[in-house]
Write a structure and sequence with these properties.
By secondary structure, the chain is mainly α. The chain has two helices and no strands. Helices cover 86% and strands 0% of the residues. The longest helix has 44 residues.
Length: 87
Amino acid sequence: MEIGSCENSFPVALILRNFIANQIAMEHKKELEELHKKSLDKIDALIDSKKNLTEDHHEKLKEAKKKWQDSWSGLMDVLMYLETLEI
């Protein structure tokens, strides 16, 4: 059996597809992490710039930031689960 025969082409193609998919997924994950960091920086800047707000408004901003971080954690959990399924 030759290396380039049809019997070997399917596993090689599958391995190559998985490798490329993982590389693309890592690129997207890095882009999402950068977007997340920028968003948190903007939220922090907004909180810092609004010194004249009432305590209630500051609490609402902090709560919104916490919800953002919780949502981010949930998204990362889903992505890690999908990676284990190799989707």
